[in-house]
From TrEMBL:
Residues 102-291 form the DUF5117 domain. This is Zinc-dependent metalloprotease. Residues 426-618 form the EcxA zinc-binding domain. The lineage of its organism: Bacteria, Pseudomonadati, Bacteroidota, Flavobacteriia, Flavobacteriales. Residues 1-21 form the signal peptide. One of its GO terms (molecular function) is metallopeptidase activity. InterPro entries: DUF5117, DUF5118, EcxA_zinc-bd, MetalloPept_cat_dom_sf, Zn_MMP-like_bac. One of its GO terms (biological process) is proteolysis. Keywords: Hydrolase, Metalloprotease, Protease, Signal.
Length: 618
């Protein structure tokens, strides 16, 4: 079936090429003659050593990247033409007012193609598909003609016994205004961008790794309404583009079901039995597979180590005292993967030192990293990049901003200080802050495994049970660490030693099992009945319920920052605790020789928390 389709595609491609070359031949031939008469070498393919001179600085990887003076070249091996690659464009650095650095601008699937004396960069669409074996797939391909993003004249060709490499000049691609890899259109309109200023735009770095190429280029746009520094009438940005080789064989998909929370992606499928097109949606998830030699064990219910573990490296910039807590937060998920049949599925490691591995870099797509960023942003986030064809997560770097600790301090103080002497100070003990870091680390890692927020989780537990030391120690304060459940503000001083936060809970274990447990010997479509039966087993039990995050709260069972099955009752307990904190606020924030800034800050936090309590409904 596949070969028939391949033949058809070849025929199609052949006919396109023929008509193209006739057309080109007629038009181009005279122009070329005059050009060659004037200057024989201009624009023509040159000997390799003339283009990539002895002065070239070369970086081997997916493509070899050469820098010769101000020029950058890609040397593309023949084997990588026609392979699909994913290009992710982000703003790496930006002036204030433009939002967080690292914001994703664009994701595209690309294909490099050799055509006569040019190399074309084409955009592949995976939005509309039909299975290869169906006749309708030709029609889909015809109406899905891949646009050409850029055309590069071939500069040189390197031939030896094993390889055939093509050299192109990519300098203009990164320094000129190629919209698909630059500042997004919406932002251009917002800031009234008229054009790129080439004199203030340049390539910063271009690095090659075995499966990806990372480029950083600075772009300056003329703007009549810039978000900051309005006197310069321009915006400068450092853009980053990651180009990642997609696997030859896409991973088996797992189809999405609204009853379990997952980050998922959609695709229009024309090949289904239905009489209209249907959007199929499948999970973003890591490729966790059973090793061939372990299949019998796995089938017998024994835990097995996956073929390829999920490994997170800790950024060498992370303060040493916090590393172990971030690692614990990562490995806390092992227990959830055990529900999916795997042991040691996810592990944390220190990044190797320069001596151990000089090639190691967090930019290398083979290494997922928890990056520690010295930035005043009080946040952390866990973005990931996945294969549009299958949902396979290819790369994930968690960004950990230094000031996450400010956020944790303020919440923990205001939500627990009434019952918790550890929280009654401006600087917590390392062990206390470490526990909070572990909690946030686990939450962010949860996102990178495919799990979105489950705001409908905390409602599963009765409010009164959150005052019970035995219950909270066993079950945490919510069935999922992916809720915004924060800390236990319900417990009262007379309740004793209650747990203050959620752990990887029963919902987390269930959803990881649902998304990751291999269903052997079945196709993605055949899996659907098994997946459905797993959901039905838990039907009606609020512990296993998923409640999606809402923009404005309509469904009161999925509120943020709420606790227990009656959020107003929980808020009443929270307010009782705030009343205990108010008279002590001066004492708990005061320090010898300091002013009242901390008092002012924490008073603001307290009012904010009061508003949160008042905003909850039942
Ligand atoms: Zn989150």
């Amino acid at each position: 079936m596949r070969t028939i389709k391949m033949l058809m595609v070849l025929l199609l491609a052949a006919s396109v090429t023929t008509s193209c070359s006739i057309f080109q031949g007629k038009k181009k031939a005279p122009a070329k003659k005059t050009a060659s008469a004037k200057k024989p070498k201009k624009g023509d393919i040159q000997p390799y050593s003339k283009v990539i001179t002895k002065e070239a600085k070369s970086d081997e990887g997916l493509f070899t990247v050469h820098q010769v003076d101000e020029k950058y070249f890609y040397e593309i091996p023949d084997s990588l033409f026609e392979r699909e690659m994913l290009m992710v464009t982000r703003i790496a650095k930006t002036a204030s007012g433009l939002g967080f650095g690292g914001g994703k601008q664009n994701t595209q699937t690309l294909r490099w193609q050799k055509k006569n004396k040019d190399v074309l960069l084409r955009v592949v669409s995976h939005q509309v598909v039909a299975a290869d074996s169906l006749p309708v797939s030709i029609a889909v391909e015809n109406s899905n003609f891949e646009p050409i993003l850029y055309s590069f004249p071939i500069k040189a060709i390197k031939k030896d016994s094993v390889t055939n490499n093509t050299v192109i000049d990519v300098t203009d691609f990164f320094t000129k205004d190629v919209k698909a890899i630059g500042f997004q259109q919406r932002a251009r309109r917002n800031y009234k961008v008229s054009r790129l200023d080439a004199s203030r735009s340049y390539i910063d770095t271009l690095r090659s790794y075995p499966q990806n190429i990372e480029s950083r280029h600075v772009k300056t746009y003329l703007s009549s309404d810039p978000p900051s520094n309005s006197s310069v009438q321009s915006i400068s940005l450092e853009m980053s583009n990651s180009m990642i080789l997609l696997p030859k064989e896409p991973m088996k998909r797992r189809y999405f079901d609204q009853r379990v929370g997952w980050f998922a992606r959609g695709q229009q499928d024309y090949g289904l039995e239905d009489q209209k097109t249907k959007t199929v949606t499948y999970l973003d998830r890591w490729r966790l597979e059973v090793k061939d030699e372990d299949i019998a064990k796995f089938k017998a219910g024994e835990l097995v180590v996956p073929k390829k573990q999920i490994v997170y490296y800790i950024d060498p910039a992370t303060p040493v005292k916090w590393r172990k807590y971030i690692k614990q937060g990562i490995e806390d998920w092992q227990i959830a993967f055990e529900a999916a049949g795997f042991k040691e599925a996810i592990i944390a490691k220190d990044a190797p030192t320069k001596e151990e591995n000089p090639e190691w870099s967090p930019e290398d797509v083979r290494y997922s990293t928890v990056r520690y960023l010295a930035s005043p942003i009080p946040n952390a986030n866990g973005p990931h990049v996945s294969d549009p064809r299958s949902g396979e997560i290819l790369e994930s770097d968690i960004n950990w901003y230094h000031n996450v600790m400010t956020l944790l301090h303020n919440w923990f103080f205001i939500q627990t200080a009434a019952i918790n002497p550890d929280a009654r100070m401006n600087n917590f003990d390392d062990a206390v802050m470490g526990r909070l870091i572990r909690f946030v680390s686990a939450h962010e890692v949860g996102h990178t495994l495919g799990l979105p927020h489950n705001m409908g989780s905390s409602i599963a537990y009765p409010v009164e049970k959150l005052r019970d030391p035995e219950f909270t120690k066993k079950y945490g304060t919510a069935p999922s660490i992916m809720d915004y459940a924060r800390f236990n503000y319900v417990a009262q001083p007379e309740d004793g030693d209650v747990a203050l936060m959620p752990n990887i809970g029963p919902y987390d274990k269930y959803s990881i099992m649902w998304g990751y447990k291999p269903i052997l010997d079945k196709t993605a479509k055949e899996e659907k009945s098994v997946l459905d039966s797993w959901i039905l087993e838990k039907a009606g039990d609020p512990v296993y319920r998923f409640g999606r995050q809402q923009r404005g709260v309509i469904d009161y069972t999925s509120q943020t920052e709420d606790l227990g099955d009656d959020s107003m009752r929980a808020s009443a307990y929270g307010i009782k605790n705030l009343k205990r904190i108010v008279p002590n606020l001066g004492k708990w924030t005061g320090e010898e020789g300091e002013n009242y800034d901390e008092l002012e800050n924490m008073y603001g936090q307290l009012v904010g928390q009061f508003n949160r309590y008042m905003g909850h409904v039942t």
